[in-house]
Please model this.
Amino acid sequence: MELAIALDFQSQTPLHQQLYEALQRAILQGILPPRYRLPSTRSLAKSLGISRNTVTQSYDRLLGEGYLATVAGSGTYVSDRLPEEFLQAKAVDPPLSAMRSPHSLSEYGERLAKNELALQPEPDVAINFRYGTPNLDLFPVKLWRKLLSRHCCGGREWLDYARDFRGYAPLREAIAGYLGRSRAVKCNPEQILLTNGTQQAVNLILRVLFVRGEAIAVEDPGYLSAKRIFASYDADIIPIPVDASGLVVEKLGDREAKLVYVTPSHQFPTGAILSLSRRLALLQWAQQTGGLIIEDDYDSEFRYGERPIPALQGLNGGNSVLYIGTFSKVLFPSLRIGYLVLPEHLVEVFLRAKWLCDRQLSTLDQYVLTDFIEEGHLESHIRKMRSHYDKLRQTLVKALEEFFGDRVTIFGEKAGIHLMAKFHFPLRDEEVISRAESVGVGLMSARVHYLDACDRGEFIFGYGELSEEQIWEGIEKLAVAIHVVKVGITHLGIH
Amino acid sequence: MELAIALDFQSQTPLHQQLYEALQRAILQGILPPRYRLPSTRSLAKSLGISRNTVTQSYDRLLGEGYLATVAGSGTYVSDRLPEEFLQAKAVDPPLSAMRSPHSLSEYGERLAKNELALQPEPDVAINFRYGTPNLDLFPVKLWRKLLSRHCCGGREWLDYARDFRGYAPLREAIAGYLGRSRAVKCNPEQILLTNGTQQAVNLILRVLFVRGEAIAVEDPGYLSAKRIFASYDADIIPIPVDASGLVVEKLGDREAKLVYVTPSHQFPTGAILSLSRRLALLQWAQQTGGLIIEDDYDSEFRYGERPIPALQGLNGGNSVLYIGTFSKVLFPSLRIGYLVLPEHLVEVFLRAKWLCDRQLSTLDQYVLTDFIEEGHLESHIRKMRSHYDKLRQTLVKALEEFFGDRVTIFGEKAGIHLMAKFHFPLRDEEVISRAESVGVGLMSARVHYLDACDRGEFIFGYGELSEEQIWEGIEKLAVAIHVVKVGITHLGIH
Model:
């Protein structure tokens, strides 16, 4: 370990004095922490290009003053008992706030600096109906570890830069096969670009295709994180309403939107499944206007009792569709692998954008995921989780009906790992959330996902990571907190 | 495994016929590959919401025609011996090229689509003096696997979304400590934002700070990948010359550059180390003009015999400096962890940009790297590699001198894992490269890193991943290929 110390060989100050001051300062600032072992005088002298005697002089003075201590036969260490007066001398540099001028931001930076883009911390509650998180206790961690060990071994190919900038070819093949079988996506592996999650995929789409001043049509209500990205590009966002069959495609009319963002398998947040006739109409819209469809097929894996509707991408050969997906919810969120299925003529330019952006994904993770899919674990894990979530979903529906009766309407429970509930009582959303939090229940209003942000009494109930007991207890506590417990409904006169 | 098949319940075509056609098509297109096991008639009927009899009818016809085969007691499979005429029917869909109109790109997309941004494949040679790749055979893979296994186990926190959007806090602490000790970087862990490599860090800087029309000063010659990113943002790139002490800061004058990009530890590609007086002058320039310095401190870990010069970031409290680094070259390239040390007032907006961009890095990799640093493996690995690279470097210098004598001048050999050699003989760079390739030696001209792209006879010799034998052999072969073998110099009359 070498220490980076600046010595000025032209200075009037002797080198041993300079070195003494530099080390003292490093110790006081905690850069050299207590019990830190210093290099030997010989090696420090060598690395600084000064005489050993100079280093010894400096060390001796610091030893004498108590900054350093020696341990016989082991070396010289930073003292762990610094006199108090030394420690009070910590603020040696001018504080950062004393800087000359803050630097100007780009327009993008200015938009990000606005408060509405601040990231909110999670509430600290025992039972959190947050959405988007799968059950992680049932993830086959041992199997994943076995696959990691299999590939984290000899052979340096996995350590090196990737040769294929689209992503690891066998993984793209495995994904193409999986998407073809389960979602009727029609693509060859060369059309797949692996991304660092779907958020990167959406960003790449905007970066490569979006021209300032163009419009992007979105579902209203619709996924906030996607709209945040669109807003960060200063897009003209056109809200299109959603009903029980998903996006009301007629309302798109001949709006000149460059892009339309849809979540057809489980509309976020209402949970509606986009009907086949609407899908065909949407593709027709794209053909007629030259628009492109961003098909975020999240939650397509979790369907309960309904027959799967093929992805938009596969219904017209994929020419108007940018299909995106991720393994975050099917496997685990901290695995940073998503995918973007592109029309062939866009592959090369997206590839360059991805490369410029951050070069590549972790190779090891790609190897592991390839085996996980090819050995059939992905599909068996999805089956297992689907039946697990189905039970949770039924419990949640039952609990909501039990405790809220006709004061609740449930939407979107036929797919995914969240549903939406609309409450029929005169409480503002904030009041519901704050009462819920006071009894340890975390709840999210659907309001932030509407562009006009009205109070509608709609809440998103994510159930993926909860147990049946927690779901029941959470809904019961919620009902008590807002005084609609079954026994009390008529008693309190709420209707 | 469910199959996504679109059935039209309003159609005149019977359902069994629709299902037969859909399955036939999937088999012919390879979506259902040979030996693929189909779902049972009962489960497919259930998932499609049709009668079991309908499915049986379709299956029977496909069995009769040889598309499917049954294995007693095991189920129904796609036949692995499809009659040849079936396989010739593959092109069922209109080709993608028949699409209506290509979609227009953003200005960024248009710039990327230009040919000069095409990504070049690696040459296929036995001895490749490519730069930027460390020796991967000496990486302690077993240790890394042990750490992966330690953290890839029970406890679901690592699987979930990250709570800290800056990156895992203990890793940021470990990096702050390491940078303080080895590079005299002064920062608290809150100023560190972890990124998906340095390329993402540079992109984030441009995204958040760069305003169209502003200028970015760069070293000339300088790192092509960084300039590609600047060009992708349509920046006005100002070349500033480089000499044996690095960037010639005087030449910056009072140029109104918003940003200046420097590689002070080992200037890319010349290998010059930016002198302390130039560092102080550069900081003064930033103070006076309000400019910001992007300090890409790559190769700072590998210095041979020189005393380390503290990072620019630490010399003025870091107010004008955006310090970037990565573990790609110190550990391995496919590990996607880099860092960006920010002035305090910029942290929040960069954090939001990173979150919007791709949320987070792999948590498991961050856990592993934290232990790797905290347990001292990083610093001992760097020591080991420094002494390894030192030997390679000496061999390379010796070989170049041995085979090229006074026809070569060597630059930048005092740090890093590449050096630059200027040849003094009248051959064009392309000719040198193509002769080298013909004897299995990969070589890169420094020319692409100059903004004016003159022929200077300068080549970059990366030696990180080669052995001493390969280096010697590669230089000898190169000398033979361009007819300057020692014995032949006067004989061939080249001078």
In short: Chain A touches chain B through 125 residues (CB under 8 Å). The longest helix of chain A spans residues 377-404.
